[in-house]
Amino acid sequence: VGDTVGTSTATADTMCVIYDMSYLEMTLNVDELDILSLEVGMAADVTLDALPGQSFRGIITKINTYGVNSGGNTKYTVTVTLDRAEKMLTGMSASVSITTATSESVPTLPAAAIQSQDGKSWVYTAYDEKTDTLSGLTQVELGRSDGESVEILSGLDSGASCYYRYADEIEYRFVG
Known about the structure:
The protein is mostly beta strands. It is elongated, with a radius of gyration of 28 Å. The protein has strands spanning 23-31, 43-48, 56-63, 68-70, 73-83, 94-97, 108-110, 115-117, 120-128, 133-145, 149-154.
């Protein structure tokens, strides 16, 4: 009825991991307000802080549909894959730009020129140099904005002039 002479237990430990170094994957956290405008297969322009003056083309390869909420704002993870270029190293800081829409032949104005009141948007179409006053308040319908420029869908004729006040610099003076 047999005696046990010895026992042996085999375990599997990872000895090494082999990576395909011909491409890089980047993960981005995208805000819930922007995630629905992204799709797998969209192009992404990537710049690396360590390689100034160069831009690289990547592709969105994965969009995680399970977001993480932090303080009332949900973020989704998006993976961008790009071919590795010479001198690219894993872990370098990068910036990614993804164009989600383009518009043709739509006039734009600086966002600073838009006045908002009662949920409507307005621009000034006249300026009196003698009295240094803006006038001709005209209601406009806005389109897309990149934060600096805003599309004007209606309310202004082609070639119309708009005026607004801006400061090139702010100077503080303390009188004591």
